[in-house]
From TrEMBL:
It holds the Pfam family Response_reg. InterPro entries: Bact_response_regulator, CheY-like_superfamily, Sig_transdc_resp-reg_receiver. It comes from the Bacteria. PANTHER family: CHEMOTAXIS TWO-COMPONENT RESPONSE REGULATOR (PTHR44591:SF25), STRESS RESPONSE REGULATOR PROTEIN 1 (PTHR44591). Keywords: Phosphoprotein. This is Response regulatory domain-containing protein.
Length: 122
């Protein structure tokens, strides 16, 4: 059974690119266009093994999304990778503090993203 990845990003281009990369590696992929959509998809899916999330999104930003996911026992242990253009030390620290396991700066090298996803999935 392939591992299931939820990709949350308001950029359709980024969603499609990350989805393409992950599908090529054999992962099952679901995409969401912001944090609210991400929560809806997360709640409706039987299993999500890892989340890749942007930070700056309309309706619900990535930090609020991650914090909300982490506050719920059923989803507390899902690895979360932030993929954002926000690359200042304070941005990275905030992302890790709210519950991300890893913070990557866009544009991320596909090989590095895949390597990190596989590492987090064990």
């Amino acid at each position: 059974m392939p591992k299931h990845i939820l990709i949350v990003d308001d950029s359709k281009t980024v969603r499609n690119l990350v989805a393409f990369i992950m599908k090529k590696e054999g992962f099952k992929v679901t995409t969401a266009e912001d944090g609210l959509d991400g929560l809806e998809k997360l709640y409706s899916l039987s299993e999500v093994d890892l989340i890749v999330s942007d930070v700056n999104m309309p309706r619900m930003d990535g930090l609020t999304f991650i914090k909300t996911v982490r506050e719920q026992a059923a989803y507390r242990d899902i690895p979360i990778v932030v993929l954002s253009t926000e690359g200042q030390d304070k941005d990275i620290q905030t992302g890790l503090t709210v519950g991300a396991n890893l913070y990557m700066i866009k544009p991320a090298q596909p090989e590095k993203l895949v390597r990190n996803v596989k590492m987090l999935l064990g």
